[in-house]
Every structure is written in C-alpha cells, then in structure tokens.
Amino acid sequence: MKIARYTPAFELSRLAHLEPWARSSFTHFPVVGALLNEFLPTLSAGRLATDVFEDADHYYARFEVPGVKKENVTVELHQNVLTITAERRVKSGDQEESFNLSRSVNLPADIQAETIQAKLEDGILTITLPKPQQQKPKLIPVN
Amino acid sequence: MNTLCTPQTCAQPTAGVTENLRKPLYTLTGNADAYEVRVELPGVPKANVKIDLEDNVLNIRAERASPTNESWKPLHREISAQNYLLRLRLNAPVDEEKLNARLEDGILTLSLPIREVAKPRRIEVN
Q1: CA-to-CA distance for A127 and A85, rounded, in angstroms?
Q2: CB B75 to CB A53 under 8 A?
Q3: Considering the domain boundaries, does residue A29 fall inside one?
C-alpha cells in the first residue's frame, strides 16, 4: 500500500499577478509559522516546501528535499503539469523507512520540456525552466 | 515610520541585532555505546555548520547559503530563510575526541560515542 500526501497544485502563471502579501500564508506571520512548526512538525515535514522565482528569461522552482538522494528524485512534465516525486529512505540499524513526497506545479503553456534543468544540492532541488520565446519582449529593428 | 517590512525590502540583520533562528527537525537514536543525532538542514552547505560541545550542551548552528540571485523575483515562498540552531543537553558523558559529524544531502548525522566510564559494566560472578 502506498500513502500519498495531498498537496494542492498551484498555477505558476496566476501567481505572477498576485500581490506579494497574498502569496504565502505564513511568510509575513513568522510567529504563526513558527508556532505551527513547533506543535505540528508533521504539517511542514510531510509537505514539499516550494519557492518559485522568476527573472527575465527563466522561472526557478526550488523544493526542500532533505535526505533525498539524486537517483530517488523524478521530475516529470505531463500536459503542462510539472510533478516532482522524491523518495526519502531513512536507515536506522536493520530497519529502513521510506517516505514518498510529491508536489505538482501547473506551468504556463509552451514551456519546452527539453530545456528544463534540475539540480540537487544540499537537500534543495532547483529546477530551471526557460520562459517561452513569445513571453520575452522582442526588439524589432527599424529599417 | 509606517512602512511595511517585507522580506524583500528588509535589510539583513547586522551584528548585535536579535536574529530569528529556527529549530530544525531532528531525530535522536542511541544504544549503550553511542548516540546518533540526525538533523535536517536543507539548504546548508558543509562549510556553514558549526558544532560545539560545552558543559554537556551540544550546540549545532547552521547558516543557509544565500539561495537566490538579486535578479530573481519571488513569486511564491514557502521555504524559510531562517538559519538553524539546535541545542541539546546530554545526560551522559560523551567522548569528545571521537565525535563524528557528516553532512549529506541536507542531513547532518552526528555520532556521539559515550565514554567508557559511563557505560554499564557487567561483573562476572565467580
């Protein structure tokens, strides 16, 4: 049997238009976030925490995956939904536990799957998504 | 005066200013020979971990590497930027010489061997 935690997907393109204060529930209430962490550690432990950034040419998604080996991470793009699945194995003596963490992000259309890059470093998975050409401003030379 | 202080606009705290630190998730296992502490420190490179043992209190302090470039504009944030601090009081004398720490994939594994004198001793009956 496999238990998968429910983590709602979110729309990357819609996020871009939100006000900063509306983006994250606890970012501006660190006390509330810290209290929740203190008393309900499983709440944040089972969730794959995500940051999304953008610059002129790329989107960057970062996922917190402590204790996950490179070979146990799958990044999948299917119909504009990017799904990250990470399996974490904890060995203690002769026992082994394994957890599956998964999270999906809705991407704007037209992102080329071939151009996506993923890097795992110090327990942080960074995914670089180049923006499609038509979203970038184009300079038209005047003749 | 009445300006909102968001993580994007706030200046980095300088020395002398109270710093927000977060307690990392950790597990502690142990047997008669050694304790093993496993601390989750995602986003921390090896060079930024400081461990010291003083008066039977184990101090683990870890600083996150700055994750982003200046030009990156945040759209959605869940990962905390706070540094980590974990303080553990040990109730058995630990052999400081054999203390061993390893950081791998964002997990710090510390093994703390218990000193010979503190181990339970079995006395054979003749």
Answers
A1: 13
A2: yes
A3: yes
Task: Judge whether B15 lies within some domain.
Answer: no
Task: Answer whether residue A1 is part of any domain.
Answer: no
Distance set, CA A95 to CA A25, A91, A92, A133, B40 (Å): 37, 6, 5, 50, 19
Classify residue B105: in a domain, yes or no. Answer: yes
How distant is the Cα of A59 from the closest Cα of chain B, in angstroms?
A: 9
Residue A3 lies in a domain: no
| Contact at CB, B6 and A45, closer than 8 angstroms | no
Query: What ipTM was assigned to the predicted interfaces of this complex?
Result: 0.71
pLDDT, chain B, mean = 81
Under 8 Å between Cβ of B9 and B82 = no
Q: In this predicted structure, what is the pLDDT of residue A18?
A: 46
Name every chain B residue with its beta carbon within 8 A of the beta carbon of A125.
none
Domain residue limits at A105: 10-132
Query: Which parts of chain A have pLDDT scores under 70?
Result: 1-47, 134-136
